[in-house]
Specification:
The chain is mainly alpha-helical. It contains seven helices and no strands.
Length: about 130
């Protein structure tokens, strides 16, 4: 008997959060790379000392997903993504939650990134659980 694998596009059913099994949890660096690729932003720019809105947004999203999906501490996440401290990571998480609740375009971007992470890694929480 052969195994059959059925994959459903996360866009096929509105509100569906696709969560297949993967080998391991992501690291802050792997999340950082996925977020940078999604926004087509150079990783060196994210690590630089800049407050350009789009750059900060990318860094904050990476902090948010790293905190909720990786096994790393806040300090480790901060060092890996932009050489920031743990308090900055916590501020990023709060900022992402606030923006998600008020900006539909931002929420769509977050869902797309979440689905990409789910395809590549083992993610235990739904996006809704992360935002609670």
């Amino acid at each position: 008997m052969s195994n059959i694998i059925i994959r459903v596009s996360p866009y096929a059913i509105p509100g569906l959060e696709y969560r297949p099994f993967a080998k391991h949890a992501p690291t802050a660096v792997s999340i950082f790379n996925i977020v940078c690729n999604y926004f087509n932003v150079d990783a060196d720019l994210i690590s630089a000392e800049t407050r350009i809105r789009e750059v900060v947004k990318v860094r904050q999203i990476a902090h948010f997903f790293a905190k909720n999906t990786s096994k790393q501490s806040l300090a480790e996440i901060g060092r890996a993504i932009g050489n920031k401290d743990h308090a900055t990571v916590l501020h990023s998480v709060k900022s992402v939650k606030d923006l998600y609740a008020t900006d539909k375009r931002f929420a769509t971007e977050m869902k797309t990134i979440y689905n990409k992470l789910c395809m590549d890694f083992q993610i235990k929480l739904t996006l809704t659980e992360m935002l609670a």
